From TrEMBL:
<protein>
    <recommendedName>
        <fullName>G-protein coupled receptors family 1 profile domain-containing protein</fullName>
    </recommendedName>
</protein>
<keyword id="KW-0807">Transducer</keyword>
<keyword id="KW-0297">G-protein coupled receptor</keyword>
<feature type="transmembrane region" description="Helical">
    <location>
        <begin position="228"/>
        <end position="246"/>
    </location>
</feature>
<keyword id="KW-1003">Cell membrane</keyword>
<dbReference type="Pfam" id="PF00001">
    <property type="entry name" value="7tm_1"/>
</dbReference>
<dbReference type="InterPro" id="IPR005390">
    <property type="entry name" value="NeuromedU_rcpt"/>
</dbReference>
<dbReference type="InterPro" id="IPR017452">
    <property type="entry name" value="GPCR_Rhodpsn_7TM"/>
</dbReference>
<keyword id="KW-0812">Transmembrane</keyword>
<keyword id="KW-0325">Glycoprotein</keyword>
<feature type="transmembrane region" description="Helical">
    <location>
        <begin position="174"/>
        <end position="195"/>
    </location>
</feature>
<feature type="transmembrane region" description="Helical">
    <location>
        <begin position="324"/>
        <end position="346"/>
    </location>
</feature>
<keyword id="KW-1133">Transmembrane helix</keyword>
<keyword id="KW-0472">Membrane</keyword>
<dbReference type="GO" id="GO:0005886">
    <property type="term" value="C:plasma membrane"/>
</dbReference>
<feature type="transmembrane region" description="Helical">
    <location>
        <begin position="284"/>
        <end position="304"/>
    </location>
</feature>
<comment type="similarity">
    <text>Belongs to the G-protein coupled receptor 1 family.</text>
</comment>
Length: 427
């Protein structure tokens, strides 16, 4: 039997601490106490210390409840409120669905691990399905953040492509593609996940059923799944989004300066519409940039811990540091799904009004919806107030084109005719 144990050590573990632990377990028998000591040499304790487990469970339960309620509210508001029917709103709806999926299928399992790590009792299909759904939902979240950032980038930096790129039908097709791509990319994690067992120290038996653990059993040779996942679904999206928001900020600053110079040349109403369009863009970009910032700030520690746990040699890597990194990064990882509904209400007046109307039954009065503007006719600039924050991309594009038409009219009568014909054709 001792030779059998040596074979187990050679094939299952190179960790010196595991070897020492097993050497201390003498006279392997089927007695429960000795068998559990043997299992713990490989798996560690079946549950974490009670203080840590309670604190982490309470925090994660708060995240779970607030995240589920908040994202369900976002879904209901966007689906029921008629004004929230732009491509950006559809992407936010998709992000809320992905966050719900991640919370429901991922967080309860992570909470369970603090109390009961093994044996896994739900079988192979549930183990692989959980890995697939959780990984897929995280990919959908990342790709959705990139998509709505790109949509806003096109609207601000390349406004003439907005009608082509920002139709609702096109947005739905993009959302469908996001889910399909995420499913395909998450499949390897499901394929290489499964229920892992420890070989039995007694030669007469094959495995220890009580050691069943749902985890990634192996990885394909020469294909580092963790590194590929981090690169494609974190580093590259983060780089793209940083570039897009820097570019959008520069364009909005330039447009703001240009509008100030053209204010005296344009009529008051046209200039007011341009300022309204610019304010809407600023508000939407502010909201989306905070969503993206919060998303990547919460996910950066998670991916860092994921890479560290894979690459650092166990002989030099402190298990205590790894454990606490796992605890903290796990909380931040799921907190990102709770953060989005909060950001919507804090940064967007339009979303707050929609929440009040749908969830609380608060209706805006006719005066609120159609407040008359008060303009100072003594100057070329008109300061106008309006309580409704409208973000209809198509209407904004029409206003932008009207401003362009006025500018072109001042320089060339021929050009204005061409632009008018083009606008009529596009409508």
């Amino acid at each position: 039997m001792e030779s059998h144990v040596n074979n187990i050590l050679e094939t299952t573990s190179r960790d010196k601490s595991v070897v020492a632990c097993i050497r201390n377990v003498e006279n392997f028998t089927d007695e429960s106490r000795l068998l559990w000591e043997y299992i713990q040499c490989f798996r560690g304790p079946q549950s974490q210390d009670i203080e840590t487990a309670v604190i982490v469970t309470v925090v994660n339960c708060i995240i779970f409840v607030t995240g589920v309620l908040g994202n369900v509210a976002v879904c209901v508001v966007i689906m029921k409120h008629k004004a929230l029917s732009t491509p950006t709103d559809y992407y936010l709806l998709n992000l809320a669905i992905a966050d719900l999926t991640l919370l429901i299928f991922g967080l309860p399992y992570d909470i369970m691990l603090y109390w009961y790590q093994y044996p896994w009792i739900f079988g192979q299909p549930v183990c692989q399905g959980r890995a697939l759904i959780s990984e897929m939902a995280s990919y959908v979240s990342v790709l959705t953040v990139v998509t709505f950032s790109t949509e806003r980038y096109v609207a601000i930096c390349h406004p003439m492509y907005t009608l082509v790129m920002s139709s609702l039908r096109r947005s739905l097709r993009i959302i469908l593609c996001i889910w399909v791509v995420s499913f395909i990319c998450a499949l390897p994690f499901a394929i290489y996940s499964g229920v892992d067992y420890i070989p039995h120290p007694n030669e007469s038996q094959n495995i220890i059923l009580e050691s069943a653990l749902c985890a990634m059993i192996s990885q394909p040779e020469n294909i580092p799944l963790t590194e590929i996942s981090t690169t494609i679904f974190f580093l590259i999206p983060m780089t793209i989004i940083i570039y897009q928001y820097i570019k959008m900020g520069l364009v909005m600053i330039r447009n703001s300066n240009n509008n100030g110079q053209l204010g005296d040349s344009l009529s008051g109403c046209v200039h007011r519409k341009d300022r309204k369009y610019e304010m809407n863009n600023r508000n939407v970009v502010k909201m989306l940039s905070l969503v993206a910032l919060g998303f990547f700030a919460c996910w950066c520690p998670f991916h860092a811990q994921r890479l560290i746990s894979v690459h650092l040699d166990e002989d030099y890597y402190s298990e205590e540091i790894n454990y606490w990194m796992y605890v903290v990064t796990g909380i931040l990882y799921y907190f990102s799904s709770t953060l989005n509904p909060i950001l919507y209400n804090v940064t967007s007046l339009r979303m707050r009004n929609a929440f009040k109307e749908v969830m609380c039954g608060v209706k805006r009065t006719r005066r609120d919806k159609f407040m008359r503007t008060k303009c100072n006719g003594a100057t070329g600039h008109r300061q106008c107030s309006n309580t409704s924050e409208v973000d209809d991309e198509k209407a904004s594009l029409v206003r932008k084109k009207s401003i362009m038409s006025v500018i072109q009219k001042m320089s060339s009568a021929t050009t204005i005719v061409d632009i008018t014909e083009e606008n009529n054709y596009q409508r």
